[in-house]
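INFO batch 0412 | record 1 of 1 | parsing
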Amino acid sequence: MEVLPDGTMIRSALSPYPLGGLMIIYDDVTDRLELEQARNTTQAVRQAILDHLLEGLAVFGSDGRLKLFNAEFGGIWDLSEDFLNSEPHVGDVIESCRELIFNASLQASDWLTLKDRIIENALERDSRVSRLHLTDGRSIRCSSVPLPDGAMLYTYVVADQLSSGVDAVEASEMKREMSRSPAQRT
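INFO prediction complete | emitting tokens
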């Protein structure tokens, strides 16, 4: 690959000419490389934004496989990044979270029924909000939203994080109210 003084990137290839000799082919790949660089930058920015959210986020495709997630999602459900990067099916994700979702002292048939119900709900294209009480004592608010491409977006917030976020908003509003002059307060 060669870079011309004006920044154009040229790829050259040698090819034998059928009647003898060599043919040199030049291909301007500047646009393709710039587009690839812009795509990589966009993906890196998107992932950095997702990884700094306080809520866990997961997108399951219409095939039921995990397509996108952030670090908080793996943290809430105690799932490894390698497992999540393998695009597991929603059933495999639920099975990996079994100890957090299901009390081990109950019947195995109860787990299968619960697992089937969770998978069925996860693959439905309905918006919903629910609360899960995990076996480790945490309470998680879950919400789902269908996306235009057939995928489903799921968000998960640990109740403690939710209440501390609400407290922070309320404190901010109170501080703003107190900073106004008495005549401006309502």
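INFO post-check: The chain is about 45% helix and 25% strand.
INFO record closed
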